[in-house]
C-alpha cells in the first residue's frame, strides 16, 4: 500500500511530462509561424535560426495588405463560412429531428444510406457537383461557394445522436398541451441542444473556413476568392518571401481560434453527449 502511494506521484509526473511534450509538439509549429511572420526579409532564413525575431517588425502584414486583396479575401471567407455554418446547422437539425423522432416507413434504411455517403470521397463528387453548379449558373458566385456546404451527413448524424438522448416525456407533455411538431422542435428541442449545435457549428465553420479544393474549382474571380485559395496564389507569386506567407497564415487561423474559444464550453459538452466520445 505504501509503495503504491509512493509511486502514484511519479506516475502522474510522467503523465504530465508526456502531455507537456505533446502540447509543445503541437504549439511549436504555430509559434514558429508567428515568429517568421514578424521577421524582416533578411532574417527569415538566416543561420542560426532565430526563434525570437530580432528586430521584431509588423512590416510583412502591412506589405501583405498592400500587394494582395487580403481584406476582401478575409471578408469572402468569413461571409461564406458564417452562412454555410448557419445553413448546415439548420438543415442538419431538421433532418436529424426527423430521423430521431418522426416515425415513417424506411426511416432507418434511409438513414443508413444517408450515412453511407460519408464513405464517398469528396473528390469523386466534385465534377458532378461542378456540372450542377454550371447548369444553375452559380459559377463564380457566392451561392456556388455556400450551398454545397450546407448539406452534411455528418452533421445530421451528430445531432440525431444528441436528439436521441433527450427525454421523450417533454415532447409528449407538449403534445398533450396542444403543441405542434414545429413548436416542439423550435421551443423545446433546439434550446436543449445548444451543446450539440455549438459542436456542429465549430466543425462546420472550420471546414468551410479551411476549404480549398471546392473554392479553387468554383471561383476564378479574385474578388470572390477565399483565404486558402488566395494564400496558395500568394505562395506561387512570392515563393521566397516566407514572412508574407506566414503572415497570411496567421491571419487565417485567428477567426478559428476565436470561434473555438467562444464555443469551447458547449463544444466539450456536445462531444461528450452526442456519441462522439471514445
What tags apply to this protein structure?
mainly alpha, MetI-like fold, 0% strand, 14 helices, disordered C terminus, globular, 278 residues
Textual characterization of the structure:
- This protein is mostly helical and 278 residues long.
- It has one domain (75-273): MetI-like (MetI-like fold), CATH 1.10.3720.10.
- It has helices at residues 2-37, 59-67, 70-101, 107-116, 122-136, 142-146, 153-163, 168-176, 181-192, 194-210, 213-218, 227-237, 242-262, 264-273.
- Helix 10 (194-210) packs antiparallel against helix 13 and helix 10 crosses helix 14 (264-273).
- The radius of gyration is 24 Å and the shape is globular.
- The model is unreliable at 274-278 (pLDDT under 50).
Indicate the CATH class: Mainly Alpha
- Kindly report how far apart the N and C termini lie: 32 Å
- Spans of at least 5 consecutive residues whose pLDDT stays below 50 are 274-278
**Record field, number of beta strands:** 0
Order of helices and strands: HHHHHHHHHHHHHH
User: Which range does the strand content fall in?
Assistant: under 5%
Shape descriptor reads globular
What characterizes the major β-sheet? none
The helix-and-strand class reads mainly alpha
CATH H-tier superfamily: MetI-like
Cα gyration radius (Å): 24 Å
Integer tally of domains? 1
Helix content: over 70%
Q: If you average the pLDDT, what whole number results?
A: 84
Report the CATH architecture. Answer: Orthogonal Bundle
> DSSP helix count?
14
CATH topology: MetI-like fold
